[in-house]
Amino acid sequence: MSLQEDLKDACDSSGEVTFHNDYSGRGMYGRRCVGIAGNKTSCQLVIAQVIKDLGWRVSRVSKESIDPDYSATPEDLDETMEKFEQNVEHLLQYSSDDLGLHSIVYWPNMEPMDEENLDIDLHDADLRED
């Protein structure tokens, strides 16, 4: 599962934060990226939930790497831990814009998801800078 999919799933679960696959923030000059919109606290909780879910995956692989009934290896654990660290670092490198009562948190270096993997409206006029 990609980091973008993790963010989208956490937004969907929150019920208070919306996922935006096609946001262009200040200084991006038309480039598009992934963002989440809602009140600041709710956006922070979504980011925390994604980090928690990523940590759960590390824990699962860790348990599987020491259990002979599973096929995970110590190398799998090392790879999963490295990916976890990269994803957390990426999540913490966000920018934000105020949208009146709400904010959008976005990741200028996070590519949007492919449209076929997305089931939301990509053309949210409230968040586009035209």
Number of domains: 1
Structural class given helices, strands, pairing?
A: alpha+beta
Number of helix segments? 3
Give the biggest sheet: 4 strands, antiparallel
Kindly state the mean pLDDT as a whole number? 85
Low-pLDDT segments: 120-130
Tell the overall outline: elongated
How is this structure best described in words?
By secondary structure, the chain is of the alpha+beta class. The protein has one domain (3-117). Helix content is 44%, strand content 18%. Strands 1-2-4-3 form a four-stranded antiparallel β-sheet. β3 and β4 (102-107) form a beta hairpin. The chain starts with a helix and ends in a 23-residue tail after the last strand. Residues 120-130 have low confidence and may be disordered.
Strand and helix layout:
Elements (H helix, E strand, L loop, with lengths): L2 H12 L3 E6 L9 E6 L1 H27 L7 H18 L3 E5 L2 E6 L23
Antiparallel strand pairs: 1-2, 2-4, 3-4
Helix pairs in contact: 1-2, 2-3
Features:
3 helices, single chain, 130 residues, disordered C terminus, alpha+beta
Summarize this structure briefly.
The chain has about 130 residues and is of the alpha+beta class.
